[in-house]
Design a protein that fits this description.
Blueprint: E1 2-7, E2 11-15, H1 25-33, H2 36-45, H3 47-50, H4 60-84, H5 93-96, E3 98-99, E4 111-116, E5 124-132, E6 135-143, H6 153-170
Parallel strand pairs: 2-6
Antiparallel strand pairs: 1-2, 3-4, 4-5, 5-6
Helix pairs in contact: 2-4
């Protein structure tokens, strides 16, 4: 596993050893969410979830266009806030990312977080570990068409990646191998 800098001293992303096609998970996820062919295949494979009624009446073509537009805006917003958060403590990545668990009672060390697209009901998810208020490590992302992450294999894989990276960060022996820890 490598750590790739997206925005210096603010936003980093994991690159898994088995991932050959992308420089980082941030890039891979957002490239997929902007790729019409990838999206068409994904929504065709998950047509039952897409048209289950939870998302209303939506065609595969509409889902592709909606996802691409939202992903473009989300990528710009994440990068913009990562940069802004270095000088404005009131608008940081923590204002954008939310804890994965609803209604947490406290902030955990290396908390699992998510950010969604900008629509009121967005299926786009980018997953990250919160290091500090404006220091996040992207672990992956997915399109979530079901109420629970435990309902679909591609979402279960994202949970596993979050847990694996969090465990890696919690292991004190790994600190010296991670570039952003040198910032402290």
């Amino acid at each position: 596993m490598d750590i790739i800098e997206i925005v210096y001293e603010s936003l980093y992303s994991v690159k898994y050893e088995e991932s050959q096609e992308a420089e980082s998970e941030f890039e891979r996820v957002l490239d997929n969410m902007k790729d019409a062919l990838y999206l068409e295949e994904f929504f065709e494979e998950n047509i039952g979830d897409l048209q289950s009624g939870f998302w209303g009446e939506i065609s595969v073509e509409e889902a592709v266009l909606r996802t691409r537009d939202e992903a473009i805006r989300l990528e710009k917003e994440i990068i913009e806030i990562a940069k802004k958060g270095k000088i404005d403590r009131y608008e940081t990545l923590s204002t954008l990312f939310k804890p994965l668990k609803n209604n947490p009672t406290k902030i955990e060390k290396f908390e699992k977080n998510k950010v969604t697209g900008d629509k009121p009901k967005s299926w786009i998810r980018i997953y990250a570990i919160r290091i500090e208020s404006n220091l996040f490590l992207i672990t992956g992302g997915a399109i979530k068409l079901t109420p629970n992450m435990n309902d679909r294999e591609h979402l279960i894989q994202e949970l596993k990646k979050l847990s694996m990276v969090r465990s890696y960060l919690l292991d004190d022996e790994n600190y010296e191998d991670i570039e952003f820890f040198e910032l402290f």
